[in-house]
Design goal:
The protein is an alpha/beta fold. It is about 35% helix and about 20% strand.
């Protein structure tokens, strides 16, 4: 019997739902889990090393390597075969309670429970978790 998969830590959900192929109208989709998106972001965009990213995501380094390899394979398949990429859940949890300002569309978190946008000072916001999953569920 395999071990139960440990939840992977994701800092913040992506602001987009995926990528769509241009000029390919009936394209299939490849699903990239949010832990795979986080691994790509931290390793390739933030240019962190695998040891540090494994600590950040709360997984072992070999597990991170498997997550990263799976993500790269999916992205390569999508590019080569002309498939859309969609971002979907996975076995993850978020670092903190993050919010999206409805007025200016920036992400922020609240440390001192005084929840208002630090940029425009409005108190109209939504939880990033609710925002992200309500969009995914509406399809």
């Amino acid at each position: 019997m395999p071990r139960k998969q440990k939840q992977r830590k994701v800092f913040l959900p992506p602001r987009i739902e995926g990528y769509k192929v241009i000029g390919h109208y009936h394209s299939e989709s490849i699903e990239l889990n949010l832990d795979e998106v986080e691994a790509i972001k931290l390793l390739d965009y933030e240019n962190l090393n695998q040891h540090d990213v494994a600590i950040i995501m709360n997984v072992s380094r070999p597990t991170l390597t498997r997550i990263y390899d799976r993500a790269r394979k999916k992205i390569a398949t999508a590019i080569t075969e002309g498939k859309n990429i969609s971002f979907k859940g996975g076995n993850i949890y978020f670092e903190d309670n993050w919010y999206i300002c409805i007025q200016c569309d920036i992400s922020f978190n609240s440390i001192d429970n005084a929840i208002s946008c630090p940029f425009c000072k409005q108190d109209k916001f939504t939880s990033t978790l609710n925002h992200h999953y309500s969009k995914l569920g509406s399809k």
